[in-house]
Amino acid sequence: MNKKIRILIGKPGLDGHDRGAKVIAAALRDAGFEVIYTGLHQLSESIVEAAIQEDVDIIGLSILSGAHMTIFPKILELLKQKNAEHIIVIGGGIIPEEDIKKLLKMGVKRIFTPGAPTNDIVDYIKSIIR
Amino acid sequence: MSKDKWKKKYSKRKERDINFSNLSKIKINPLYTPDDNEDFDYDKDLNYPGEYPYTRGVQPTMYRGRLWTMRQFSGFGTPKDTNTRYKYLLKHGQTGLSVAFDFPTLYGKDSDDPLAQGEVGKCGVAIDTLRDMEILFDGIPLEKISTSMTINPPAAMLLAMYIVVGEKQGVPKDVLTGTIQNDMLKEYQAQKTWIYPPEPSMRIITDILKYCSENVPKWNTISISGYHIREAGSTALQELAFTLANGFTYVDYGIKSGLPVDTFAPRLSFFFNSHLDFFEEIAKYRAARRIWAKLMKDKYHAQNPKSYLVRFHTQTAGCSLTAQQPENNIIRTAFQGLAAVLGGTQSLHTNSMDETYALPTEKAVKIALRTQQLIAYETGVPNTIDPLGGSYYVEALTDELEKLTLEYFDKIETLGGVVPAIEKGFFQREISRSAYEYQKALEKKEKYHVGINIFEEEENVEIELLKIPEEVEIDQKKSLNKVKEERNNSKVKETLIKLREAAENRENLMPRILDCVREYATLGEMCETLKEVFGIYKEPIIF
Prior knowledge:
The structure holds two protein chains of two kinds. Chain A is an alpha/beta fold. Chain A contains five helices and five strands; from the N terminus they run βαβαβαβαβα. Chain A has a five-stranded parallel sheet, sandwiched between helices. In chain A, β3 (58-63), α3 (68-81) and β4 form a beta-alpha-beta unit. In chain A, α2 (44-53) packs across α3. By secondary structure, chain B is an alpha/beta fold. Chain B has a domain at 51-414: TIM Barrel, CATH 3.20.20.240. Helices cover 48% and strands 6% of the residues of chain B. Chain B has helices at 3-12, 42-46, 79-91, 103-106, 130-136, 155-169, 184-191, 198-215, 227-231, 236-256, 261-264, 278-298, 328-342, 362-377, 392-414, 418-423, 426-443, 471-486, 489-504, 510-518, 523-534, and strands at 69-70, 73-74, 97-99, 147-149, 178-180, 219-220, 222-225, 268-274, 312-316, 347-349. In chain B, β2, α3 and β3 form a beta-alpha-beta unit. In chain B, α10 (236-256) packs parallel to α12 (278-298) and α13 (328-342) crosses α14. The longest helix of chain B is centred in the C-terminal third of the chain and has 23 residues, at 392-414. The N and C termini of chain B lie far apart (52 Å). Chain A binds chain B through residues 13-19, 21-23, 25-27, 29, 35, 37, 39-41, 43, 65-67, 69-71, 94, 96-98, 113-115, 117-119, and chain B through 103-104, 106-107, 109, 114-119, 122-123, 191-193, 231-233, 319, 321-324, 356-359, 432, 435-436, 439, 442-443, 449, 451-453, 461, 465, 468, 470, 539, 541-543.
């Protein structure tokens, strides 16, 4: 039995750039994923809350505001506090290489930058969830 | 040789195997001839620059009289950091300022708000009170410079701060020149920076229209913006149609609030994107001018020719930049800047090569500014007005975009107008669909983007980036606290109560906001006060 992969796409903070998040959400939906999109302006707390409630396998955060070094660690920390570290965290947005390295070290599984084909993202998620 | 003969010859040869269409999905013919402009009437369709319907440009002289304003959008860190960048840009020949605010400011939140965590000074400059604005424009004479502020829900507050900075410099209100974006409709559709629901937002906007027409007559009160609609994924056609539809909606609301159309329409300005398809963009600007002029005259019966004008700012397409092979962005931006100039823009921002990574460095932003200066001083393009006017291709495209825009207007009309269409999610759905289709077209290689799906390279991008130190947030919170300690808190409270009453009693908000600003009320305090009366907006989630 193939259970559908459940992913929560989150837009944390005040960042209103939701083009990427929505394109990814639509592409994942078309690829057969169960997609929960939070909408804009979410506190990290509510993203983690929703992820646990919706029992997702993975959280994808879209951050184009430069706040990634604040928000990713916060999400990881909240997951830890709630004993939900099994939920994988990936992300995308305007994020410099140097910061990507730091984020991966902290426990973010993967960061996609502008221009990443949606197929690559679909394949990547399938490869880590199976 | 007859056209048929050429057609025959053409059809015997092989075409390259690509999709010959533009980004609005309009099929492009191999050749345009006089047959494509059969009903062409020079006086009616084009006429002379500065003459109705303004297809060829809004001024009789265009760039032979004065070049476009080179206006780089800029702001980051603390007000002091940005003040230094402004002085740098002015020193290098920039001719106007354009303020980028950080996300908390854009949403009317103070730097110490929980949702502002990690965002202070990141995407723009942080402004909490009048004090920050005084620092931002320190040493910059407001009577000599025009300033554009990209600010929407709290536009009234930032304009008020600017007015008071002017007062303190001894510059009267009626001398100030500049623009506030103040275009809430596209926020609900695309840019997603909102506080209040649409109706109270429209009321604040009409308050500003009224106040400025009486007190700040040279100020552009709304910059009706297609830029963000395009960045969110729309096609050129949707950008054109939705922007103009929004513009006419502001006109409707202005008239409904009791303002005669000619008192405020001359101060409306526009803001468009310049994207990858060169001729499509040029045709878009030309069509915008013609459609606006025609409807302002025929439908709204404006008498002042200034009400007919689409004066516009252009920014090259941020979403067309690539993280891959970032130097290519310099070239991309040059083509886009050239299209804007050929389309008759009044001011221009050219993006920097490093903006898919971070805000631009000084070096990158200087190259972007130089790109405009090359167009202005080397290419000879500004020597003549609307050089592409009369091109069979450009005229046919202009006509086609006009026709399709009017079809969109009908569709919006059947939904009850722009505001009801926003509530039904119409624009949001249209834009999301186009964004997704474009992404799919790239992945199927129906459209190309160099470095993304053609001529890709394995590369290690080494590029110098602007870093916003974490101390910015700490420093900004400190100075906010200091202002709160030093100001007269009971007076602040008093002015905020008056603001609240004005909101409840439908008085014009601007004079009350000015009073709050003078007492150093924070942006967050003013916006929270209005929230209590107006409520907050919740978006329908569509993807």
